[in-house]
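Re: [ENG-882] Designed sequences occasionally contain unexpected residues at chain ends

Forwarding the minimal case from QA. Structure tokens:
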């Protein structure tokens, strides 16, 4: 059995200072590294900016967040939100080898809260080979420092986030099995909201379909979708309303009733909150856009060929 070295071995250590403009639009990697944690390794972070993501390659260790410890084993990916009191360290006599990045950028706090809504900041069942490939690509990008470095790092961090969402959404991981979009426990309530969006669905009834208490249902639903069941249903109703606004000449009052709203005022209010535009303006804009596209299609290609021919004749 291999033992942890007495001193930590740093294999890769990289730094980056993004521009203020990059911080506003990209996921930015501030630090990155590859190390084998020794017996001396026990990090207690001050309030560094950003989030630390670490992938365990070998050995075992722990992440402690707000006084609660979580084990991290080979193939696991841990997320440490540096705003919280935290530390991480190797298990006794374990040669804990990890790849890690420290990331900052728009909406990272919200992504962390969504992914850890079920409680644990450690993700098991991650595709470890894919995760390692992403981390090593990040290292190469930081080392080469190309012109499109910021955008390239943003894309790779997005790949890590996608990997974590895939891991968290998988209810019962099985080798070779297709990853379901949502946990099986949420299939029935989500189908009910898709099929019967116009009806006055109660959260307690949806929770019962999932076999959960209301509080557990809220927590698991948000972990799987990133939003609450109430907000998800509202957006499903707005999606249905968009189709009716474009494809029919029904009044706003009728569309409101057909999509589960029994008051046109609340329908218009929610529609504008979600889309940023009033339903009547949405209808006018989308129909004008559709007409413009139709005009372009009529012009091409024969009309263009004829016009070009006329142009040559005039020349």
């Amino acid at each position: 059995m291999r033992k942890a070295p007495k001193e930590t071995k740093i294999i890769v250590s990289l730094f980056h200072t993004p521009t203020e403009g990059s911080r506003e639009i990209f996921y930015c990697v501030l630090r990155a590294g590859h190390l084998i944690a020794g017996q001396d390794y026990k990090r207690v972070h001050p309030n560094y900016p950003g989030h630390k993501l670490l992938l365990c390659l070998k050995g075992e260790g722990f992440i402690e967040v707000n006084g609660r410890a979580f084990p991290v084993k080979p193939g696991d990916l841990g997320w440490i939100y540096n705003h919280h009191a935290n530390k991480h360290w190797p298990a006794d006599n374990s040669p804990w080898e990890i790849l890690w990045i420290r990331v900052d950028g728009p909406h990272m706090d919200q992504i962390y809260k969504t992914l850890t809504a079920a409680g644990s900041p450690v993700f098991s069942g991650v595709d470890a080979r894919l995760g390692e490939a992403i981390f090593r690509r990040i290292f190469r990008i930081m080392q080469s420092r190309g012109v499109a470095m910021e955008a390239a790092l943003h894309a790779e961090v997005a790949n890590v986030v996608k990997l974590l969402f895939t891991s968290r959404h998988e209810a019962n991981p099985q080798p070779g099995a297709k990853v379901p979009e949502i946990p099986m426990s949420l299939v029935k309530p989500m189908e009910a909201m898709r099929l019967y969006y116009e009806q006055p669905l109660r959260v307690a009834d949806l929770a019962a379909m999932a076999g959960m208490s209301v509080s557990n249902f809220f927590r698991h639903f948000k972990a799987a979708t990133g939003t609450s069941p109430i907000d998800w249903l509202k957006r499903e109703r707005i999606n249905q309303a968009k189709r009716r606004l474009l494809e029919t000449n029904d009044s706003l009052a009728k569309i409101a009733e057909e999509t589960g709203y029994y008051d046109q005022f609340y329908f218009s209010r929610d529609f504008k909150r979600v889309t940023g535009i009033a339903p009547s303006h949405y209808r006018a804009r989308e129909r004008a856009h559709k007409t413009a596209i139709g005009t372009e299609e009529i012009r091409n290609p024969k009309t263009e060929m004829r016009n070009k021919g006329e142009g040559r004749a005039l020349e």
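QA comment: On inspection the terminal residues look reasonable. DSSP finds twelve helices and ten strands in the chain. Proposing we downgrade this to a documentation issue.
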